[in-house]
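QA checklist item 7 of 12: single-chain prediction sanity check.
[x] sequence parsed
[x] length recorded as 352
[x] structure emitted
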Amino acid sequence: MADLSTKYMGLELSSPVVVGSSSLANSVEGVKKLEDAGAAAVVLKSLFEEQIFAETEEMGEYSHTLYDSEAAEFVEAYGREFGPRDYLKLIQDAKKACSIPIIASLNCFSQKWWVNYAKKIEAAGADALELNIGVMPSNPKLTSEEVESLYLAVVKDIKKEVNIPVALKIGPYFSSFANLALTLSRGRVSHRDFIVGWCGNPAPSEKKEGWNGVDALVLFNRYYQLDIDIDKMELVAGNPYSTSNEIHESLRWISLLSGKVDCDLAATTGIHTGADAVKQLLAGADVVQLCSTLYKNGLDQIKTVKQEIEDWMGANGFNSVADFRGKLSQKKSEFPTAHERLQYIKLFVGIE
């Protein structure tokens, strides 16, 4: 029988199949159902800053400066219904009810809240913390370096204050994502350190500013999808669920980063089947996160994905996940440039 056990951020997992943050994990009952369905770990539904404000006197005035009245009413009502105190209790109760690791998720946009609630989440007993940061770089006055500094500042402040493992869920929209990923994994490093290390030569491992990098990067965040109703001529939400066709961005970057960053890698978005999971593991992912497929196919899909991984391993002579993890990463590839080519469409079909 194939051994699916693995480690993620130092946590011992029965398999690399983790359930990503969603409303499936917003109650103890929900988390317990995910464990019973075979999840190796669960990332709880995110605690949003709007919920934090909803429990303070500031929310009533502040929310209306950020949203239109309808949106403000929604976040206020949501925060009153399920706020930070409920979230901390969810962590405590889920830890009592379940034997699998419980990973909390925090989504803020004001820096003052990050550290405060990260410490409370740790005190509540979470095994790890996943930071969900999404900065829309819509301000033309902000440089790419300034946008990246926002992410670095959050990670730096939190890593100095908590002892539990910290993962960063991030999007791919950076001008030099590989450089940012390495910096986030190590703490602050110089550009020269990055170039030396990336070219395969030994690179300095000391932390430049006395702070440790993230324990894992979760690639990639699937942000709110915007659409337009042309009949009503108004903005509407796009499809909330991913498809397997959305796997390719994270697949490329995990294959590029595997073995080159000083942290674990989790793949998310577009992972619906065992085949999708195997691809990410071959690229170098330590774990895969399921979400949309559970909404579409039910919680039994967790066991299906695990069985499909086992079947593939048996057919290909692998006894453990470690036997093939990263086998097709760029670091181990016979054709490393194939991971970076962006213009093969011209070669294959002869069009621009």
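[x] summary fact logged: The CA atoms of residues 42 and 202 lie 36 Å apart.
[ ] second reviewer sign-off
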